[in-house]
Amino acid sequence: MMIGEVAEKSGFSVHTLRYYEKIGLLPTSHRDGGGRRSYDDDVLRWLEFLSRLKDLGMPIRDRVLYARLRAEGDSTIEARRRLLQTYRDALAKRVISLTETLDVLDAKIASYDTTGTPLKGPRK
User: Fold this and answer.
1) What integer is the mean pLDDT of 34-57?
2) Phi, psi torsion values for 30, nearest 5 degrees
3) Where are the transmembrane segments (predicted)?
4) For 47-77, what is each residue's pLDDT tens digit?
5) Enclosing H/E stretch for 31
6) Residue 56 to residue 85: CA distance in whole angstroms
7) Nearest Cα to 32, choosing from 63, 2, 72, 65?
8) CATH class as words, domain 3-115
9) Measured between alpha carbons, how far is 53 from 47 in angstroms, rounded to an integer?
10) Domain range summary for the chain, segments of one domain joined by +
11) For residues 83 and 69, is the Cβ–Cβ distance under 8 A?
């Protein structure tokens, strides 16, 4: 796949893909006879994973670290697992907090639905 097709399918801009390659988030692409970047289908799965890491708040330096460890092979599996576990634990805490917030909002909305006005008690 050429870089434009990868951009279209992944949702990342061509500029971002070039930047990711420059900083080591993407492996160096193969080049065709005209010097144009060419990628295999695996790059789309990798970009989807990188997108998930970004969405959970992993800074780019840690995404680059993860990519470097991944490129080094199986000897880095434990280091990769520890890095992902750190972010997984933080995400789990955020999910709990967001769920608690959702419960509070649902209760407040329900109080409006049943009476048309908030229930008596402390104003929240």
Assistant:
1) 93
2) -75, 155
3) none
4) 999 999 999 999 999 999 999 999 999 999 9
5) strand 30-31
6) 12
7) 2
8) mainly alpha
9) 10
10) 3-115
11) yes
C-alpha pair distances (Å), 114 with each of 44, 100, 108, 109, 118: 49, 21, 10, 9, 9
What is the rounded distance in angstroms from the CA atom of residue 10 to the CA atom of residue 24?
Answer: 18
Structure tokens belonging to residue 35? 């010097």
SS3 30: strand
Distance separating alpha carbons of residues 15 and 21, to the nearest angstrom: 10
CA distance 19 to 119: 54
Output the pLDDT for position 117.
59
Among candidates 91, 9, 10, which has minimal Cα distance to 53?
91
